[in-house]
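My current task is to audit a protein record that another person submitted. Alongside the sequence sits a line of tokens, each denoting a local backbone shape. Where you disagree with what is written, explain briefly why. This is what I was given:
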Amino acid sequence: MANNSRTRRPNTVTAFVEDGTSKYAMEAVDYDTAVATFLYDCTVKNLSSFTVKYYRNSLKELVKYLLIAKAERPIDVTEALLKTAIMAKLNSGVKDTTVNTNLKGWRTFFRFLNERSFLPTNPAEHVELLRTERRIIPAFTTDQVKALLKAADQQSFTGFRDYTTVQLLIETGIRICELEGLKVTDIYWKERVIKVFGKGRKERFVPFQATLEKQMKKYVAIRGPLDHDFLFVNIDNSAIKRRTVQENIQKLGIAAGIKGVRVSPHTFRHTFAKFYIMNGGDAFSLQKMLGHTTVEMVQTYVSLFGADIAKQHRKFSPLEHLHDDDND
């Protein structure tokens, strides 16, 4: 009887090199080849250019460290070396969340090499993400949002565009990379939803309401017909880039005198989630609108913003109610 539990061989033919009495794939003995093969696979899977760039940058940092540590081939990498690399990053002052961002890329890389039989084992198999402290999520107050909107010069095209951008970010909570790729054809006016292409090229529909609809219709009319469909454009009619959006929002923050919170597109994403939860929205629909694959981040929003803590404290303060029974 055939043994059906055998591991299937990869359906690829790769170059091998002699190393003593053993033969290894080039991916096992050369970092450049290993990284190139991995990134090619990412491209074939149609991962976004931003995801491929993220993997390339995180692996560049790792390889640099491994070569310094005398692990000159991928097959020489051990679990202990990877953990040492993590500690080196932490000791250099890198935030734990940033280390985890890099570590996710490293783990995916070595899992790929192992699953494709380029490496006999996966040195990152038991390397876990760092436990991170739950930090206060920065978000704008209602007054700060109003101040940012007021700071935009609606008498100029760029100011009117930035005013519309701020309204869109606070209404939908979309990522800056998603905003950058928006097209006029992605707006479904009748249904009041915007088609967004998120991480991993995943498509989702995000709703909006009458106030944003009115503003976007004005902006689209001012934008006028162009030879491309990108929604947000520069004064020369070229599609706006994320860096420009970031810089323009920072300028609005300076003009509005915003202090104590970073004025960035991502802060609008947190602010959207904060207001949505505080106004009674549920975690499931929030997860769908934000495009999160897991509920972890959404649960953080719920735990932080699920109730107006100050209002609840005024209502149920132990000290304020300490003598309630004295009048009985």
